Amino acid sequence: MTSQNAMQVPQPLTAYNIKPLFNSVDAFLFDCDGVIWKGDKLIDGVPQTLDMLRSKGKKLIFVTNNSTKSRRQYADKFHSLGLSVAEDEIFSSSFAASMYLKVNNFSPEKKVYVIGGDGILEELHLAGYTGLGGSYIILQEDGDKRAQLKSDYLFQHDKSVGAVVVGLDPNINYYKLQYATLCIRENPGCLFIATNRDAVGHMTDLQEWPGAGCMVAAMCGSTEREPIVVGKPSTFMMEFLLKKFQIDTSRMCMVGDRLDTDILFGQNAGCRTLLVLSGVTTQSTLENPENNIQPDYYTSQVSDILELLEH
Amino acid sequence: MTSQNAMQVPQPLTAYNIKPLFNSVDAFLFDCDGVIWKGDKLIDGVPQTLDMLRSKGKKLIFVTNNSTKSRRQYADKFHSLGLSVAEDEIFSSSFAASMYLKVNNFSPEKKVYVIGGDGILEELHLAGYTGLGGSYIILQEDGDKRAQLKSDYLFQHDKSVGAVVVGLDPNINYYKLQYATLCIRENPGCLFIATNRDAVGHMTDLQEWPGAGCMVAAMCGSTEREPIVVGKPSTFMMEFLLKKFQIDTSRMCMVGDRLDTDILFGQNAGCRTLLVLSGVTTQSTLENPENNIQPDYYTSQVSDILELLEH
């Protein structure tokens, strides 16, 4: 079975088409924000649906662009919401960033400057790298630092920084932007890695906030460079997933709430795709003639899978 | 006389070609940062050169993308450096932003949210508009505010904001980014105006720092919108200049240190162009085969005009 044709009209998930989809899929890949939860609130019917899928022998994999947490921190969040999910079922863009460095034999003697949060720094630490700049508890936080714009002041940066990782950072400031810009512009060969480029995300339950795409664009603006993106829709994370789970991508279904990350990621990797309307994408956005990313299926929320199968 | 051909090889300014250039020009337009000064230090020979040009009857006009100051504040800076320049000889991108609103009949009953500094807010105030968000002394400063990312917190923004102006802001933070993003995404018809898109600038004498292009890109990243740019290389400011000075653009020479703003601005407006190497552009950047912006002339610094004419 091959990936869908992008020009195909997406089908609403129904009691008729759910069975063939279910039977043709061995693994369900879920985005988290807007699919499993919204901010700190679980979306209705998710636990029962995941339990049913596991009971039918389906693999469950969670693929999130949100870099603010490490895999360990995500496992804690799942548990706190009453969901039993193991660390190695979770693929976050924070993990992907440090895995990108590993795969590319980035020297542990070089340092990594981070615009982002704990998640990235913890994953770097677990991979044996030294992160600077973020807010990981054992390290210094640059979020409270102020750039000194005095006439004769020379802003110093660490010449041993060989990579800058940029993710969502609610403590973004001019100090961090200058630090990261100097690393990329002045340290020879310095990598510029973006966890993801989501424009906005549900940082709180009630509304959207600027996403990593905001901080990444800021760095593109000051460096005039383009980043290596490791999160969705880049298929970098899929390589790891495939090594671990050994399931053909044509027997995977990517379930997500965003067209330009989740659905595109699924399509790029050759998966079936299911858009849920419980997150950032509305039905009118999906049906807008300007939208050129069409999922195979769409439905209102994850629990529809359970309801339609029981129908 | 028409604008130069972009494919033409730029000529070094010499004792032979300075005379015809000088005689064919009635007004010299100068960029400031990297041309007149660097940070707070005057570039050698500038006062004598400007005095000579005035004594020969040339109009002097100062066109700067730096939005951190108003025209009044720029006049103060010129005076503090011993240069006699009047407010109405100065065209800053802060002034251009408020003039853009005026020209487009932006209602004074609507407010303007500012990511940027005093310069923008003072110009808005002088034009009869209410600015929010920046650091103008009579207004509240959002630079010290923190976004509250609590679960049930709803970030409120002013629904009467009808324009967002983004310039260089050393106090950039997540609060401001969220505020401006909500205005652009949720207030119907809200304008998104960029003072300029310079990647970097000399915020201090000794090195470059992220420029307005950094903050503007951040806002493009979170809003997925493109701004109206009022600074160089947009020719918006030229309209004002021409009304005031009534000199044909073919009898103007734009003198600047940046190819993608100053020289392109001069070319777009139909001026002669002179690149000085006292700022961000090196001779090797100019001669790089990938550079496709070629000034008519180039020289090391402004005072060469004086030296070559006296030769």
Short recap of the structure:
By secondary structure, the first copy, chain A, is α/β, with parallel strands linked by helices.
Strand and helix layout:
2 copies of one chain form a homodimer.
Chain A lengths: L10 E2 L5 H6 L3 E4 L6 E2 L2 E2 L3 H10 L3 E6 L6 H10 L9 E3 H11 L7 E5 L2 H9 L3 E3 L28 E6 L7 H13 L4 E4 L5 E2 L7 E2 L1 H12 L4 E2 L6 H10 L6 E5 L2 H11 L2 E5 L6 H5 L9 E3 L3 H8 L1
Parallel strand pairs in A: 1-16, 2-5, 2-14, 5-6, 7-8, 7-9, 9-10, 10-13, 14-15, 15-16
Antiparallel strand pairs in A: 3-4, 11-12
Helix pairs in contact in A: 2-11, 4-5, 6-7
Number of helices of chain A: 11
Number of DSSP strand runs of chain A: 16
Global Rg of chain A: 20 Å
Tell me the fraction of residues in β-strands of chain A, as a range.
15-25%
The CATH architecture name of the largest domain in chain A reads: 3-Layer(aba) Sandwich
Level-1 CATH class name of the largest domain in chain A = Alpha Beta
Largest sheet of chain A: 7 strands, parallel
Measured between the Cα atoms of the first and last residue of chain A, the distance is 26 Å
Task: Quickly give the structural class of chain A.
Answer: alpha/beta
Mean pLDDT of chain A: 92
Greatest interface by residues involved:
A-B, 44 and 44 residues
Helix content of chain A: 25-40%
Looking at CATH, which topology of the largest domain in chain A would you report? Rossmann fold
| Largest sheet, spatial ordering of strands of chain A | 1-16-15-14-2-5-6
- Give the CATH H-level superfamily of the largest domain in chain A: HAD superfamily/HAD-like
Give helix and strand order of chain A, one letter per element, not per position: EHEEEHEHEHEHEEHEEEHEHEHEHEH
The domain tally of chain A reads 2
Q: What's the overall geometry of chain A?
A: elongated
